[in-house]
Description:
By secondary structure, the chain is an alpha/beta fold.
Amino acid sequence: xxxxxxxxxxxxxxxxxxxxxxxxxxxxxxxxxxxxxxxxxxxxxxxxxxxxxxxxxxxxxxxxxxxxxxxxxxxxxxxxxxxxxxxxxxxxxxxxxxxxxxxxxxxxxxxxxxxxxxxxxxxxxxxxxxxxxxxxxxxxxxxxxxxxxxxxxxxxxxxxxxxxxxxxxxxxxxxxxxxxxxxxxxxxxxxxxxxxxxxxxxxxxxxxxxxxxxxxxxxxxxxxxxxxxxxxxxxxxxxxxxxxxxxxxxxxxxxxxxxxxxxxxxxxxxxxxxxxxxxxxxxxxxxxxxxxxxxxxxxxxx
Length: 302
């Protein structure tokens, strides 16, 4: 038995179809991960759920709806806000895949729905690895590859995962959808960005949840204060700053959460925007054992 996440989009719809075509006993599951305050966004969520039901009815497979709003808030959204306030730039998709789609969803699918395997419409591939483990590989369609967003998923969920679209190009997926009568699903506009923001400006959305903290834009080369801002949580390194009165475009080079200072430099190719060293505090080894090293040593990878 396979439980397949169904979003109402073309990818998950075709994934479910391909699984059924191979003879699997497929159940579709629509995940509600966000409880919107905005009526317009609620309409979008309702429309997606309606499309998911349409797909499951068309494929003649059962559909369930599950509510993961609370775990999403605690494990994804709250973590994202905390990291923005530290001056970091989190990736909610990575957090969501680890905690929700390959966390509580997998648990629900196996424990509540009796699934042997769990499938999604991600563009990625898996390959057996010695010892019963699996390797995570790029999808055939390099432009749509999502293996990066799955890189924090644990081995357990990966071993019981199926990615039916990993060997397909996006264009072929759309063609399959049309060929089986899912024309309106194939024609849907592809969702981009963060699902809970919708059409609103990112900064305005974040400031509904984060208290503004006034700070300054400071020129790296001169130390001169160039302007004011309402908090580093709205900015990321490399982002262009629209500061009035400047003859040239300036870009964020440093963020300081203690002082709320944003250090900027002129031009997008300034040396201060580039680094030769990468620091990581929580490396995740997908299928291999981590190389041994002492706490104060470095391991070259590139």
